[in-house]
UniProtKB/TrEMBL annotation:
Membership in a protein family: Belongs to the type III pantothenate kinase family.
Keyword 4Fe-4S: no
Cofactor: K(+); NH4(+)
Active-site residues annotated for this sequence: D102 (proton acceptor)
Coiled coil stretches, renumbered: none
Cofactor binding annotation: A monovalent cation. Ammonium or potassium.
A GO BP annotation: coenzyme A biosynthetic process
CC terms in the record's Gene Ontology section: cytoplasm
Entry keywords, A to Z: ATP-binding, Coenzyme A biosynthesis, Cytoplasm, Kinase, Metal-binding, Nucleotide-binding, Potassium, Transferase
Name listed for the protein in its UniProt record: Type III pantothenate kinase
Gene name of this polypeptide: coaX
Amino acid sequence: MDLLLDIGNTSLRWALYADGRLGEVGAVRHFGGLPIDLLAAWEPLVRPTRVTVANVGGEAVADALTQVCQGRWGLAPRFVATQGDALGVKIAYVEPARLGVDRWLALLAAHHQFPGDALIVDAGTAVTFDLLAADGRHLGGLILPGVEPMRDTLLRGTQIPRLAVVDPVDERIDRPWADDTAGAIGAATIQAPAALAERLHRAFAERTGGAPRLLVTGGDGARLLPALSSDAEPVPDLVLRGLALVS
């Protein structure tokens, strides 16, 4: 049994992996360390064979995890790094190590489990967009601030008063504009990454003459889905699926 961890900028997702199956996914906000509720959830765990980690959350949370794993199970976690050409996926970056390991793992999982061309949208503190050809070539991508950073930056950098900004109820059936400031910010910060995803997806389809998949993952992926086309496929554990491939 392996313990897999996907440590993002603000959140940590984890699952057990055994006999080719990924278990139930747990998620917490890590704040640069390991929260007490996560340690409590791990209390009944049988000692895993391995602990495999994707970390873009910084050294502090990595150090905390290492101490816990060594103290509790006598295991040193393995921190995965991006590889330029592995498991059938070739990264477009001239310096592959500069591609976040979470993006690389999502590409691996998409290539192995969702055949064909694919646009991967990973929505969290940042929203990343990666284009993957059916033959495993990573074509490149884009990065936007996430929903909450966009809202925070706007409210900090302007004289707009702090407001209770909330997501629209359902962008598919509701009008795509608002009649108050809080609603305008809420709708726009959901629609901006969703609109970019739709534009990239359309351009990818025109370039290939096919119908690329639109895979949506990340902690805020579900928030974008109502503003996306019905073709969008939610895969919230895509990075963990990639970790399972390399564990």
